[in-house]
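Team,

Forwarding the record for the chain on the shared tracking sheet. I've put the sequence and predicted structure together so nobody has to dig through attachments.
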Amino acid sequence: MTNLTMERNFLYNIAGNEDRLQRLQDMASSGKVFQRPQDDPVGVERSVGLRNHLSKNRLYLRNLDRAKAWMDYTEQALSEISAVISRAQEIGLFGANGTTPVDARNAIACEVHQLWEEVGTVANRTVEGRLIVTGTMPTWRISPGLDITSDDLTTMLNDVRIYLADLETGLRNPAAANPVTALQNLSLTADVVLAQRATNGARVNRVETLETKMTALDIEFQRQLSNVEDVDITQVIVRLRGAEAAYQAALGAGARLIQPSLLDYLK
């Protein structure tokens, strides 16, 4: 075996040691098991799959958060409508009494008109440039194959405004409209509002339950991804120390191996 052959074998082995040392240094500095697909093809495939699931799950979580916020706005609007109807019934009963003076009836009618305007304000309230309770409602994909939306309350709000207008007219001029009939209609609409609040509340409960599950799933995906990608830093440090020692020992052995020269053979 010639010196050239020994040198080539030595350099080949040193290159292998350097490659292992470099990979361990990359793992220690980055905290990741692999930097390139060829480092661990199976691990990279699992990592890509887990990251895809994690990305989709977080999109569902964002949609759940937006859906819940929208439904909270809807509940607030419905609560205000309930308060409007309750107030209209309270003052309307007093105004519909035949013994109530005309001035008092007119004052009550003015307040009923303000309540009518308040319903219009609720109907035109917007979030992110979109009407909350009227018009076309947004739809959110909250899990694979499952969408959720809210209800268009235009008809219900229009009914409330019509009955409030009838009540105002009846208070100002009983001959033109019967305030008692308007109050009865408002009472029926109050039941509709209550049913709508129950429906919205059920949707909120469903969203919150699903949000809890999706959050737990997000944590599980992160745990699995960490198991695939993250290194055991203690183990890597031990292996790195061992690789450094082996590299230094290989350099020392190589130096002694190719130390003899032609003059040594001629002696």
